[in-house]
Design goal:
heterodimer; A: 356 residues; alpha/beta; Rossmann fold; 7-stranded mixed beta sheet; 15 strands; B: 306 residues; mainly alpha; globular
Chain lengths: 356, 306
């Protein structure tokens, strides 16, 4: 928190200077939940900012705040940005949802874009998201192909729909190959704590999993997997450097094209509220090269990726049974987006009790 | 390697940085100085240790650099609070802020690069002993150093004349001064020892625990070390007990989750904090003993009469 105060102060100083320097420029601002040096989620958003700078050059001015805690601090940070002349503000974490809507009500002329949320209480709030779970499904397929013990470990952050969506998709993908596949879930209750993520990975490996996947943001689990000789998936960014012989693939978030499009819309005056949920098809979710697996596994992974990319296949297609054994989706039935975005139950086979 | 042994080693890895930073801070506080900058010194140690190990290829040089930077960084604190007599609490907090910001800036180019890892030792025969071999004789060298450090500090504080002098400075700096003891010099040395320990603990994170640099990678461990010192009522072996208890419950709850027991993970995640507080409050329940152990001049500025 203290760091936030410091960075807010620094950013404010920068911003006031920037506003004086250029009057006509559109100012685009980002708020990250982690440090841009996490080499994961926030890092990828920041790559998007850099792409905006590169693409739009002189037309735009950018600013960002990193390591902003979800909650009251986020509201302060957003308000600070709105006051300092930002024209469009990207709030890049689920936990910024309420703060974003609250501040948006007070600044009707500023455009707000909230990532991974679902509340749009004012006309100047848009939401955007990526279908990471499409990548998770592919990971599930790969995990079931390469695992010898038939058990994968899943390091999860917080029990929110986005994370549950990923766990279920991973499970469904694995079950499509091996119906008896098991997934062990450990909640780290943090997005980002290298040590804790490493401990979680060790605990899972000690309990017999031989494939690790994570929905937390550091590269620590990949390193632990390398040390212990099991396989792992990279998160948010290609982590192959941390496990040249460990990483099977990674889900890479590519926010750049979306950010460029939206900032450009503000420049052109065509910005409108919307709710976007893009995935592999639109290029938001990219799979890193399939490595360290048999040709058979690679082929299966490539096939399913191609199917999802072309829109031919949706991971959430029935028949799907809930964890308690009741039917959720009938054969051929496809879950609608609203249900998925509020998902709060596991599918059958997940070896965990969902914290409520 | 059996599962129990694997768990024990994981616990030791989680506890070691807390123990090292805690022991350092204990010496500082025993001399009557409250340095809240542990987190900042730790994170500076982490980034320097990582960088030097990466550039030289030697984890040991990385550790030396981490120790040196921790001590240097604490020297800044010592100069401000002891020579210029600024407020210790505010200066300590400032040190943490500065450390977090500065390390992020220094470490910018280290992000996304795998680091150099200090491996575990291997003693033929001993390490291969069943059950305990790997835990007792097959861990990373810093683990053994942390135990020696705890024993050494306990011996120094309570069995040597110099230790007695340091404690007397912490208990009553005016009397110590009247006896001709150089209060400021002793506090300078204590603060620098604390800084060196915090630097080493930080280096442990980025060279042994998770050999990588990510911003803010200490993630509050400096604060936990600080709290351990207070709850351990300034006794070295109790800091060790607290650190290992904290580590054990942290790792234990992860295993409980992986086993799939039906307890909410939020509760399990808060368990290490709860358990450590409860146990340390219980063992320091004797109020008279606690009062005897509390450095009476803790946090009080000292200005020698001129």
């Amino acid at each position: 928190m203290k760091k936030t105060v410091l960075s807010i102060a620094a950013a404010a100083a920068m911003l006031s200077f920037g506003t004086m320097a250029a009057e006509a420029k559109v100012k685009a601002c980002w708020i990250y939940v982690g440090p841009i040096g996490d080499f994961g989620y926030s890092y990828q958003h920041h790559q998007g900012l850099l792409e905006v700078q590169k693409e739009l050059g002189d037309q735009v001015e950018t600013a960002y705040l990193e390591s902003v805690p979800e909650g009251a601090d986020a509201e302060r940070a957003l308000e600070r940005f709105a006051r300092s002349g930002c024209n469009i503000i990207f709030a890049t974490s689920f936990g910024f949802m309420d703060a974003t809507n609250k501040v948006a009500g007070r600044f009707p002329d500023v455009k707000f874009e909230h990532a991974t949320g679902y509340k749009r209480e004012h006309p100047n709030v848009a939401t955007y998201n990526s279908k990471f779970h499409e990548g998770r499904y592919v990971q599930g397929v790969i995990a079931a192909k390469v695992s010898k013990t038939g058990v994968a470990g899943y390091i999860a952050s917080f029990p929110i729909p986005e994370v549950v969506l990923g766990i279920n998709a991973f499970m469904l993908g694995a079950q499509s190959v091996n119906p008896d596949f098991k997934v062990k879930v450990v909640w780290a209750n943090t997005w980002y704590d290298a040590g804790k993520e490493a401990d979680a990975a060790k605990a899972l490996i000690d309990q017999g999993v031989d494939v690790i996947t994570q929905h937390t943001d550091s590269t620590a689990p990949m390193q632990v997997a390398t040390e212990r000789g099991v396989k792992a998936f990279g998160q948010a960014t290609d982590m192959i450097k941390f496990g040249p012989e460990t990483q099977l693939t990674a889900i890479v978030d590519d926010w750049g094209p979306y950010y460029v499009k939206r900032v450009k819309a503000v420049i052109d005056g065509t910005w409108q509220q919307q709710d976007v949920w893009d995935g592999m098809k639109e290029g938001n979710v990219v799979m890193a090269p399939f490595t360290n697996m048999s040709d058979d596994a690679k082929k299966a992974a490539e096939e399913i990726t191609a199917k999802i990319k072309s829109g031919e296949f949706n991971p959430y297609t029935g028949p799907i049974t809930r964890q308690d054994g009741s039917e959720w989706l009938k054969p051929g039935e496809v879950a609608d987006n609203a249900t998925l975005l509020g998902l709060n139950f596991y599918v059958k086979g997940v070896d965990d009790k969902l914290p409520q | 390697m059996g599962m129990l042994e694997a768990i024990l080693i994981t616990i030791a890895t989680a506890a070691t940085p807390l123990l090292i930073a805690g022991i350092g801070e204990l010496v500082v506080e025993r001399s009557g100085v409250l340095n809240l900058g542990v987190e900042g010194m730790m994170v500076m140690g982490a980034v320097t240790g990582f960088g030097v190990a990466l550039m030289t290829g030697s984890p040991w040089l990385g550790f030396l650099a981490a120790i040196a930077v921790g001590a240097l960084f604490s020297l800044l604190f010592a100069f401000l609070t002891l020579t210029l007599v600024t407020n210790q609490v505010a200066t300590g907090l400032a040190l943490t802020l500065l450390g977090l910001g500065l390390s992020g800036m220094i470490g910018e180019s280290f992000v996304g690069i795998p680091g150099v890892k200090l491996g575990s030792i291997h003693i033929p025969l001993l390490t291969d002993l069943p059950l305990v071999g790997k835990f007792l004789f097959g861990q990373d060298p810093i683990f053994y150093i942390s135990l020696l450090l705890t024993g050494g500090v306990a011996y120094f504080l309570f069995r040597t004349r110099a230790g007695l002098t340091l404690r007397s400075v912490g208990d009553n700096h005016a009397s110590a001064h009247a006896l001709g003891i150089n209060v400021i010099l002793i506090r300078y040395l204590a603060v620098m020892f604390g800084g060196a320990c915090a630097g080493l603990a930080g280096g442990y994170l980025s060279i042994v625990y998770t050999p990588q640099w990510v911003e803010n990678m200490t993630a509050g461990r400096g604060w936990i070390a600080l709290a351990l010192v207070v709850f351990a009522s300034w006794r070295p072996w109790r800091v060790l007990a607290g650190a290992y208890l904290f580590g054990a419950v942290t790792i234990g709850q992860l295993h409980a989750q992986a086993l799939g027991i039906g307890v909410p993970s939020q509760l399990l995640s808060s368990l290490p904090y709860l358990a450590t507080i409860v146990v340390l409050v219980l063992i320091s329940g004797n109020r008279r003993l606690t009062m005897v152990n509390t450095p009476a001049s803790l946090g009080r500025p000292f200005v020698p009469d001129r």
